[in-house]
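Quick log. Single chain, no ligands specified.
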Amino acid sequence: MVGDLWATAPSAPGGASRRRVKTLRLDQGGGPFRLELGGQLACLDVAFQTYGTLSSKRDNAVLITHALAADAHVTGDADPGERPGWWKDVVGSGKPIDTQRFFVICPNILGSCHGTTGPSSIDPGTGVPYGPRFPRITVGDWATVHAALLDALGIDRLYAAAGGSIGGQQALELALRFPDRVARIVVLAAAARLSAQGLAFNACGRASIVGDPHFRGGDYYGHAPPTGGLSAARMMAHITYLSDESMRGTFGRRPREQRGGAGDAFGAEFAVEDYLADQGRRFALEFDANSYLAITRAMDYYDAAAWGDGDLVEACRRVGARVLLLSFDSDWLYPPKDCRELAIAFVRAGKEIQHANIPSPHGHDSFLLGSSAMNNFVRAFLDG
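-> predicted structure:
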């Protein structure tokens, strides 16, 4: 069943032809939707947005897979009360992922709070939000849901799947799980797995959330949400998205404009503190804490080498798609050495891969900004 989730403008000036965000209910043939770790959902709604026109041969579809906190609105200028598309510099008319040529699909991931079923959704069996009872999810589940969406849209094989960060891992997982369903994958700022340092940052973020007095064991719906813990989690995560160079250039050790007075020794003193606090506050108003817990745990679980019983080269042998893998030299969430490990595994598996490490001062967030170097690689790869 496909229906409108909310109405949006029919077009985005200077961007892509834009459709309304829709929802699709998946039921796996009338039964519950079964998840990789044994859980199940009686019903599963997927929010997605499409751009461009599907060709008569249905061979020009490009799936965009998003990172942790994004949504289905990948491109186009903002409507009133809405942010611009999160990848509007990369996806759109005449852009590297050209909506005049490709039919672009961007689904919101399972477990999110932006339209697809997640912890804040109503459990039809109880009539209240799932909350902490939402089943554990994996990157593999995201790939399975993406494939089910493609089935519903009548698309057997993707021209390409593309994403950055855990979006890049979703593109990789699609090629591993469904080798015949994708011809190309574009993996940006992502590796086969998250490092121990990345696991540690995620653990600290989750600890901040569950330690918030408003968390209530995850059953906070109808009460004050744990915004303090979620804000602190976002502040920690946001540090990993930046780089020392970008933070030094933007903030350095510059004091904030209005410093704490006497008796406020532990208040914000530096401009970077104000910036992070603002990032945390805004995020906590827009995102759900239980979704953050579920998505970061799925991020932790992922290891592409599992497809080769722990051998990454063997796992890569499954992939039939051509691969573009781009890392960024200042990224320390998915650092270049980890991306290079994945690239080498593809080479040793005899697969067709292009890999480059792009200079950028912007850290992990480089993939979002659409630098000329990144855009040129993506455009050439999709043209090839």
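Residues 1-19 have pLDDT under 50 and may be disordered.
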